[in-house]
Amino acid sequence: MEKSIMRSRIGIVAMLLTIISTAQSYAVETSLACKEELFFSIGHRFHGSENYYNSLDFIKQCFEAEGIEGYWVESFTTKLGNWEKGETYLTFKGNTVPVEPYPYTPNFHLLNHEKFYVLDSASQLDQPSVELSEKLHGSIVLLANTHREQKYPQVEGEGKLTNETLALAALNTDPNNRLIGYHSRRSLRSVLRLRREAREEFERFQKLAKSLGIVALIQSSNINGDVIRVDESNFVALPDDSSFKRLPVLVVPHSHFALMKSDIEQGKMLTANLSSKSEKANLEIEPNYSLLVRIDPKQAKYKQEPAILVGAHLDSWSVGQGATDNGLSVISLMNLAITLNRNNADLRQPIILAFWGGHEVGFEGSKSFVERHIGQLFGKSKAEKQLNIALYLNLDNGAGKIRGIYTNGNKQAAEIFKAISNDIPKGFVVTEQSVDQTEHILFEHMGIPAFQFIQDPEKYIHLTHHTNYDVLSPELLQNSIYNQELLQTILIKLGDKAKDFSTLKHKYNYPPLTGNVNFTLRGYTEVNEVYVVGDFNNWDMFGIPLKRGEGGWEARIKLPQGRYLYKFIVDGRWIADPQTDLNNLYSDGKGHSGLTEIIVR
Asked: Residues in domain CBM20 (predicted)?
């Protein structure tokens, strides 16, 4: 029998008994019971931890107190343990150093340790000399390749998007021209593949390090000052060998790492004390969960309409409180559920709100939902009982105010959002720019119109993202209330327009092999993925995958009569069709060059 997620905790009951109402506008009394306690009484919500299970229970009890009955949990299986972070400390030269353990760091305790080594590159462990092996054996090793400060663009003001920037984004008709946001373009396939490969490489490195007698690893945060960032999502899944016990891995601030590294390289006599207590070090694999709630329209005739699905991820990293990533969005959705449940008269379609688990370890909760309710991610099989979903809206860009929406090159969707923008607070913009690397790409990949909201940065990516500075503040809490109100307005104003959304043209989650137009790329057999992109799919970089075959790649799609221009995307790189003579390549006058012309008669 699956382990119940209804784990009792006295503190949760106390939360519901100590509600102080400071409600304003749509922020109703019970919704405010579901705000600060999520961070101060429960804290971080690292997936598989007791905190995570308690946060699920907390949301359920808030809903039950409001009489919301339409919620359910969905389990999914993935190789995640139930590691619990305990107290961790590090002293160096008698001084206390701020420190955070990597997830799944086991219990360990080192006193008055005197042997250290600075490793310039992980590749040095592949074929170490006898001399290097002797230096590494019994050492605490500092990973020098992690000591690099990440440079971020200067953010105007306090991280608010300016009206000028938003105006430029609104005029942008090229989905691949990134004017706002911070993620580089990657396909769903490459995101999942790169995580898997990095995790495998990390496990290989760990095993090499253990075989050489290294006792602990220390890496640098990539932000200057006292900020500690712990965000290597590639490295948190359990190793395939369940008997393998990881080396301790600790992260220290950039400035502290520099001082430690300098002292060690100067050969100074040094001592360190390290300790990390893991409340659960056995890394048992347990069921994992997402939570969903459905709010039906009051009028029966609308209950069978396609639903709007809105999602935010519940899990967080084990550093900080997980307020900006993504706790305050969770609060917005909880408030939204309570408000809509109290007043659903204006709804014209069902609303499903999703609190995803397993986001930080590879979208595991939303992936499971997609395969259970929609179909196979990279195949033709459909789910036996498909949910009727009109569109998906995602909230995962920090804790700033919502300022607009990315429509990912979907011109028809952009027009629908623009049509309701007069009823939305001034400054809400609609851009055709694409953004990826969060949950909405799973749904878009499956042919469901899916969009991410634009939010004010609020120092998110260059300070709070996966760091010890990811904590609640009064201003951020007000943003959450604002976002909940705005979401409610958008959902109501969409009304019966929700069923008018359609996916991008020529969007396939598997290589299409039927149609009147054939695209082939000869060679490139060593690459991982190839896509064809052109004016026929509004330059959607990852909409038409090619199938690997003997000697190259191929796809076939159906196109009406006309003239078209195209290129290929090879492992994220744009390339002209090598079969086209350089003198015969075209430009479309809109920023795309090196294009091959094709005439369909």
From this structure: 514-598
Query: Does 175 share its domain with 72?
Result: yes
Containing structural domain, residue 568: 517-600
- Could you tell me if 464 and 353 lie in one domain? yes
State the pLDDT at residue 50: 86
Chain segment 510-524, per-residue pLDDT in tens: 999 999 999 999 999
In this structure, the answer to whether residues 538 and 445 fall within a common structural domain is no
Domain co-membership, 74 together with 89: no
Residues sharing a CB contact under 8 Å with residue 358, sequence separation 6 or more, in sequence order: 47, 76, 78, 80, 288, 290, 315, 364, 365, 366, 367, 368
Is the CB of residue 498 less than 8 Å from the CB of residue 351? no
Three-state DSSP state, 273: strand
Average pLDDT of the chain to the nearest whole number? 87
- Does 536 lie in the same domain as 444? no
Residue for token pair 């000399």: 129
Q: Over the stretch 266-282, which tens digit does the pLDDT of each residue have?
A: 999 889 999 987 755 45
Rounded CA gap, 263 and 270, in Å? Answer: 8
Q: Looking at residue 139, which CATH number applies to its domain?
A: 3.50.30.30
Number of domains composing the chain: 3
Would the pLDDT of 223 be above 60? yes
Q: What is the pLDDT of residue 18?
A: 30
Are 415 and 269 in a shared domain?
Answer: no
CA torsion sign for 344, 401, 36, 227 is positive
Q: What share of residues in the chain are helix, strand, coil (percent, to 5)?
A: 30, 25, 45
For residues 427 and 546, membership in a common domain is answered with no
Q: Which residue has the higher pLDDT, 85 or 271?
A: 271
pTM: 0.91
Q: For the segment 41-66, what is each residue's pLDDT rounded down to a tens digit?
A: 788 898 888 899 999 999 998 999 89
214 contacts 247 by C-beta, under 8 angstroms: yes
Q: Residue 11: its pLDDT value, please?
A: 37
